Amino acid sequence: MKRARSPLWLLLALALTGCNDESQQALGTLEWDRIALPSPAAEKIVRIDVREGQRVAAGARLVQLELTRTQSQLTATQAQARQAGDVLAELQAGPRREDIAQARANLAAAQARAANAQAFFRRMQPLGRQQLVSAAEVDLARAAAENAQAEVRAAQEALLELERGTRSEQIAQGESAVASAKAQAAVQAVTLEKLDLIAPRAGVVDSLPYRLGDQAPVGAPLAIMLVGDAPYARVYVPEPIRANVRVGQSAQVHVDGRDEPLQGRVRMIRNEPSFTPYYALIGKDAARLSYLAEVELTGHDAAQLPSGLPVRVEFTK
Q1: Other C-beta atoms within 10 Å of 60: how many?
Q2: Phi-psi sector, 202: left (phi>0), alpha (psi -120 to 50), beta
Q3: Which residues form a coiled coil (predicted)?
Q4: Is the dihedral of CA 144, 147, 151, 157 positive or negative?
Q5: Cα 216 to Cα 65: distance, rounded to the nearest angstrom
Q6: Is pLDDT at 3 greater than 60 in this prediction?
Q7: Of 23, 92, 248, 253, which is most buried by a Cβ count within 10 Å?
């Protein structure tokens, strides 16, 4: 006759079942997609048009920074761009007729001086041979004649340069200067526009780290927004069930404080493991690796849930 099984075996089986169910879940928190709007310049905050927790539409003004310095820099760069454009136009137009006429007159004057110096040297040569003048005076006359000829050649080259017009390399340099000046002006214009902080998407203003009159450094977040149609569950998947979790898989999300679970879908799971965080410890899982995952909520009633709530995710096989 067989003995009846002890109730101890039944309790042990239930405990093992509970542990098995517990290992098939992932813990984490409810999160929203966040957008940080950085400060484009170190300017003082002169106006704040929203408050924390306020829902805003895309394109709504959030924060206004002081415009004076950036506006002055934009005006200066625009003036430099116009100046570079005028220099380029002058290069493209080439020398004026008056400059060419002046160069021809300078050449004629140099030729006249050269002819006079050459004639004087010719008169001094026989006098030097007859020793009526010193050799030094003859040498001075020869040097003056040669110098006058050099001036003639210089005047000829100057006239030729004007007649041939502007070199193509000079025009290319002028075009590069204009492009650079316009680019700098465009950068200042964009910076000026960004001083009026606009919401890029519809969402909720989660945080305004700075107050009216503060001067935030460049890159510091002036406003942080929560965007998206619904929050998502940011959970840590234990290593034993990682092989059974995939992107697109359905899941049930249990939110702390709600009786009914929400439906979700895995939208991301990391391939690199990390240690289980302190708030997701489940018995032996404390010593195991886990994988960060994101589960988006597909139900319409999830849009009003705040971030930071603890969640428990059960993945559908």
Answers
A1: 16
A2: beta
A3: 100-165
A4: positive
A5: 10
A6: no
A7: 253
DSSP string, 199-214: -SSSEEEEE--S-TT-
Q: From start to end of 39-153, where are the E strands?
A: 45-48, 55-56, 61-65
User: Which residues have CB under 8 Å from 277's CB, separation 6+?
Assistant: 236
Q: Decide if 224 contacts 39 (C-beta within 8 A).
A: no
State the residue for tokens 């050269």: 114
Instruction: Please report, for residues 7, 128, 143, 191, the alpha-carbon distance to residue 123 in angstroms, rounded to integers and kept in the order given.
Output: 144, 9, 14, 76
Residue 91 corresponds to which amino acid? L
Distance of alpha carbon 37 from alpha carbon 146, whole angstroms: 74
Express the helix, strand and coil content of the chain in percent, nearest 5 each: 45, 25, 25
pLDDT of residue 60: 94
Tracing tokens 């220099």 back to the chain, one arrives at 87
Tell me the percentage of the chain whose pLDDT exceeds 90: 46
What residues are paired with 127 via a beta bridge? none
Q: Tell the burial category of 285 from Cβ atoms under 10 Å away from its Cβ (0-12, 13-18, 19+).
A: buried
222: β partners: none
pTM reported for the whole predicted model: 0.60
Is the pLDDT score of 205 beyond 90? Answer: yes
Answer yes or no: is pLDDT of 46 > 90.
Answer: yes
pLDDT tens column, 137-179: 888 988 998 998 999 899 888 888 888 877 888 889 999 999 9
